[in-house]
Design a protein that fits this description.
Structural class: alpha/beta
Order of helices and strands: EHEEHEEEEHEHEEEH
Largest sheet: 7 strands, mixed
Helix content: 25-40%
Number of domains: 1
CATH superfamily: Peptidase C15, pyroglutamyl peptidase I-like
Strand order of the largest sheet: 2-3-1-4-9-5-8
Oligomer: single chain
Distance between the termini: 16 Å
Number of helices: 5
CATH topology: Aminopeptidase
Radius of gyration: 16 Å
Strand content: 15-25%
Shape: globular
Length: 202
């Protein structure tokens, strides 16, 4: 089995992105499954170009995408990605789309195919705050999730895929009154989410 796990580069003036820090900390193998780790750019164009190429090349059995949702207090496992790019905050290339589709002619939305409820249950059993989220937003994270699921659907692959948002790390929240989580806890959460995604036989 092969698992593609991605995190994002820093954005919004931050010097780190806890999603990529968590992905970097993962081992190269979990429960016999090979892990392929990749850092994505925080650009709408970049994820739409890079993710399809990665998925088609690697042919993973599972794709676990991760990203930062500064302001959220817990780990949030996304239920759905929508075919919309809309942001007042420019991406790292200065692009700020308004009401644009991720892909013209694609479905309005895709549901995650990783076991979102099982992941949340497993994290909470580890005393890690976690919940299901019903919106991945309309920024680059949603675009990444939609791109992965659309690529898999178009290619007729049976790959399971989904997206997990993580809060600010404590390091990022030192100078701002925002919810945060220890990076070590974020790391444990992503590792456990990958384990559940591998083990799940639903």
């Amino acid at each position: 089995m092969k698992v593609l796990v991605t995190g994002f580069e820093p954005f919004g003036g931050e010097s780190i992105n806890p999603s990529w820090e968590a992905v970097k900390a993962l081992p190269d193998e979990i429960n016999g499954a090979e892990l392929v780790k990749h850092r994505l750019p925080v650009t709408f164009g970049g994820v739409r170009e890079i993710l399809p190429r990665l998925i088609v090349k690697e042919r993973p059995d599972v794709v676990v995408l991760t990203g930062q949702a500064g302001g959220r207090p817990n780990i949030t496992v996304e239920r759905v990605a929508i075919n919309v790019m809309d942001s007042k905050m420019p991406d790292n290339e200065g692009f700020a789309p308004e009401d644009e589709p991720v892909f013209e002619g694609a479905p309005a939305a895709y549901f995650a195919t990783i076991p979102i409820k099982a992941i949340v249950k497993a994290l909470r059993e580890e005393k890690i705050p976690a919940s299901v989220s019903n919106t991945a937003g309309t920024y680059v994270c949603n675009t990444a999730m939609f791109t992965a699921l659309h690529t898999i659907a178009v290619a007729g692959m049976e790959t399971r895929a989904g997206f997990i948002h993580v809060p600010f790390s404590h390091e990022q929240a030192l100078d701002k009154p925002r919810p945060s989580m220890a990076q070590e806890t974020i790391n444990r959460a992503i590792k456990r989410a990958v384990e559940v995604s591998i083990e799940w036989e639903g």
